């Protein structure tokens, strides 16, 4: 975790939004001498920040496209609480496992765990998730809303909505949501969302939203090639993971706040507008068998409503969906 | 965790149930020489086991009443899976926190975390739980049933039923259950059960049942004196925590297996028979206000049904109950 001084220094530059900050402003914020300011700036440079110094007027930081460190991720998060505590790892088994541990240790609302590589990344229903080094955004966000257990699936929709919008804003690509938790572009998967919780029988302690995004992979393992792709392949250029991360936490906080203020209704409308087009024929593979039909929408509990050929509506709690 | 050899050695004595075991039987089980058997027996003695050796016929172990160690707890657990993996700590913040971490690391069904002292024991709704050194049973049991989230509260009833029966069997005291999670004897609390879970929006990964039992305290802090008591105070003698633990895991496995085989219906009947007498007037303090009436029963979701003075039935999901 970042030192208090480092946080204050980054706060000053983050608030300036790329504009010049005078040495005196920094000295005031850190309650230190001008000489100490110079040392702090040198340390930031060593940490990989590109700092422009203008004699007599101050310093400015342009976020480095490449840099993907705890400090840069903190600097990128222009939010009130999501990402204001960030734990970055070069390599972990799974950010979800770390997040579960941090919940036990009392991690605050909005804490983000993020890794450059996962050796045992996991998807929905304990499936493995491919998370190669340096190519994607593998993150887990801890939220502590005061909601009953039954509403927890709604957080999956908030997260997929937020990530879809962040992808659009940063890359210009149009991400669509496939119920319950995947983002697709051009019929290939670019992102999965996994919502887990720790709860008592009566009360939710914490929700952990895992988000895996394929950003800069240029190749996929044989068995994924038809199903998965990356933003870089689709956009034809490298995408800054830092910039995308910064946009994700902003969008996530925006929609989460909307949910806390106004409930699930507005989220549901926005989500449905981004969902893979309704009226299309789908096949839902459930534990009980296959259901074929057209998607009518989602319920307030996040259940998928499918109408079959003879007009019967089915409520689907858990399934794999494919276009039929 | 115990070494494989130590487990095998304890398995042999556990199966013998206090009867003599020949040196050859031990040598066969551990695939070792008779000289090595002698060394193993010496090590068990050092670990605090009371071993009787009969020249020419073998060894026997009588469980020591006092001994409360990982090895003795393993030796006490005459079960198929609950307690067959046991992690014992002299002191932890909370066994629930450790259990959550072990779930992340893939702990198997039936793993027990147990401590001689908790420095930050927790009760329901994040309330602190007093757990002085060496006086109680503070344990967390990890279960991995394949059930939907809605059924998780049922595990609280299984656990309180099992612990009540174990207390009866070991001490002769008559423990009654107060919805949702407390055991009372003579109108004072002796045990609390806390059911937590890790789950996906669609799927339960693990349920962690925390159980705190006041066994050998002779005094309680001022503020608890009217509300809490211990089995030793009630029985007028020291109770073997090891013996009680051994009975708890047996009863817990029995009722959990009954639940897996036959569902919640038989558990519900047994639970209601042990519940603080129905027809008595109670006050339920909920977040929405107070409800006064008589308890009619529990629903399949673990909801308490209370009928008020004018005959209206209330479904209570979360409340503090007192006799009115």
From TrEMBL, chains A, B:
Superkingdom per UniProt: Bacteria
CC annotations in GO: cytoplasm
Binding-site positions, biotin: 118, 189
The reaction(s) this protein catalyses: biotin + L-lysyl-[protein] + ATP = N(6)-biotinyl-L-lysyl-[protein] + AMP + diphosphate + H(+)
Example GO molecular function: biotin--[biotin carboxyl-carrier protein] ligase activity
PANTHER family: BIOTIN PROTEIN LIGASE, BIOTIN--PROTEIN LIGASE
Role noted for this protein: Acts both as a biotin--[acetyl-CoA-carboxylase] ligase and a repressor.
Protein name: Bifunctional ligase/repressor BirA
């Amino acid at each position: 975790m970042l030192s208090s001084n480092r946080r204050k220094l980054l706060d000053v530059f983050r608030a300036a939004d790329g504009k010049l900050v005078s040495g005196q402003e920094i000295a005031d914020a850190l309650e230190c001498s001008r000489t100490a300011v110079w040392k702090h700036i040198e340390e930031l440079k060593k940490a990989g920040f590109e700092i422009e110094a203008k004699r007599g007027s101050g310093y400015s930081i342009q976020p480095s496209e490449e840099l993907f460190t705890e400090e840069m991720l903190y600097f990128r998060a222009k939010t009130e609480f999501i990402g204001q505590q960030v734990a970055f790892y070069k390599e972990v088994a799974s950010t979800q496992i770390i997040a579960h541990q941090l919940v036990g240790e009392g991690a605050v609302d909005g804490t983000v765990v993020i890794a450059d590589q996962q050796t045992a990344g996991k998807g929905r229903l304990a499936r493995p998730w491919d998370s190669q080094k340096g190519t994607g955004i593998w993150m887990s966000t801890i939220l502590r809303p005061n909601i009953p257990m039954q509403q927890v699936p709604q957080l999956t929709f908030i997260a997929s909505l937020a990530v879809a919008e962040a992808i659009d804003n940063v890359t210009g690509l149009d991400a669509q949501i496939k119920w319950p938790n995947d983002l697709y572009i051009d019929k290939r998967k670019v992102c999965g969302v996994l919502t887990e919780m720790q709860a008592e029988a009566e009360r939710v302690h914490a929700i952990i939203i895992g988000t895996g995004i394929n950003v800069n992979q240029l190749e996929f393992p044989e068995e994924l090639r038809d199903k998965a792709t990356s933003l870089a392949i689709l956009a034809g250029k490298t995408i800054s993971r830092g910039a995308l991360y910064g946009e994700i936490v902003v969008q996530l906080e925006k929609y989460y706040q909307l949910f806390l203020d106004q409930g699930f209704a507005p989220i549901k409308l926005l989500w449905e507008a981004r969902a893979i087009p309704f009226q299309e024929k789908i096949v839902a593979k459930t534990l009980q068998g296959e259901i074929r039909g057209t998607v009518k929408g989602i319920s307030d509990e996040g259940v998928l409503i499918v109408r079959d050929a003879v007009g019967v509506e089915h409520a689907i709690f858990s399934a794999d969906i494919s276009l039929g």
